[in-house]
């Protein structure tokens, strides 16, 4: 009996090992099949194409239409400053008076030259002076006159534009040393410079009305302007072209340095619109995806190109067909090709 028992025990062990080994692989396979066939509950939405306004927002800083720095041509002591920061000034208005000592000397030389030329001119008419003498005196007079006119212009400084004084860098009695005495800016109108994407190059025209301009300084208010310049070349690096927009600014509320948002309307295009909950960001990249439901109740992980946000939805430029069904809840348990079941 002991021999039989000893003989049967190894046999039983062999049979046990055989059964155990034979069952391990099918069981593992069954687990994988079951996992693949277990449907993940999700919520879905059907999406359709709509006529989507092509509204594009650009940002810019407000600039003065013109800026002029009031300064003399050479270092001279400042005698008087007749405007303060914030003052409105008219074109041609006297703003700064410089020391006139050099001007007085130049005026004396000019007066003497006029007398000398008058004498030579009378002599030349009666043959008492040569043509070369006349020419020499006339040239000297012209040089002194030009010098005096230039010095006069740089002694009494006038504004070449109508505008607002926005900076003052000296006081009376200071010696001018290179920086502008005053800065005058024209703020009727003001201008914005935006960089527009290449795809809109043929759509932006000079004179085009811009009806949606906002400023952080005036929340809730909308201003309007007009395209004044469309630059003819594009930046090869950014694929954009500059566009200048002018705002009439009749009430002077818009000031240089303000931050502006410009919304331009480029018509409408028919694009699919999806709920924002359906859009999935790819980890580690800026790509966006949606899970689209296939005919066999599985999902396809599809890359999309986003357009503009519209409330709680996104415009889709490409990646989804009109009439598709997309997952809006439950994406965290999905992978490409996963079986799903739709729940309310």
Task: Give a written overview of the molecule.
The longest helix is centred in the first third of the chain and has 36 residues, at 2-37. The protein has helices spanning 2-37, 101-125, 131-153, and strands at 40-46, 48-61, 63-70, 78-81, 88-89, 94-98, 156-158, 163-168, 182-197, 209-215, 223-230, 240-247, 259-275, 280-281, 288-293, 299-310, 313-318, 325-329, 340-342. It is built from 3 helices and 19 strands. With 344 residues, the chain is an alpha+beta fold.
List keywords for this structure.
Elongation Factor Tu (Ef-tu), domain 3; 3-stranded mixed β-sheet; conserved putative lor/sdh protein from methanococcus maripaludis s2 fold; alpha+beta; 13-stranded antiparallel β-sheet; 344 residues; single chain; Helix Hairpins; 19 strands; 24% helix
Order of helices and strands: HEEEEEEHHEEEEEEEEEEEEE
Radius of gyration: 41 Å
The CATH topology of the domain at 57-64 and 185-268 is given as Elongation Factor Tu (Ef-tu), domain 3
Can you tell me the CATH class of the domain at 57-64 and 185-268?
Mainly Beta
Architecture (CATH level 2) name of the domain at 57-64 and 185-268:
Beta Barrel
Low-pLDDT residue spans = 1-35
Largest sheet: 13 strands, antiparallel
| SS summary, helix count | 3
